[in-house]
Amino acid sequence: MEQQSLLKQDIKQRFVSVYGLDVSPDEIGDDQELFGPESSFGLDSMDVLQFIATMHEEFNFDLGSLRTDTFKNVDTIAGFLQESRGG
After folding, report:
1. CB-side exposure of 43: number of CA atoms within 13 Å?
2. For residue 63, which of 82, 80, 40 has the smallest C-alpha distance?
3. CATH top-level class of 2-84
4. I need a labelling partner for 49 at 20 to 30 A (CA). Which of 6, 33, 67, 76 fits?
């Protein structure tokens, strides 16, 4: 469980860094919408592509395995990354 918590914190830090957000990573909820009309960050579906590219550089996952909701929130991203690393 500790590993998943660290992964989620890493995702939040990268998210804040990539978009230069004026928010602490700790203020981002694990199930908070990151992109789209429900997002409080003002980021849309085009913005998600930049984040996917950033995360792909670090984690080298199979882009073909992405679903439309994979990068919905921190929980879905962490789950996807853990699955892609085999557990």
Report:
1. 20
2. 80
3. mainly alpha
4. 6
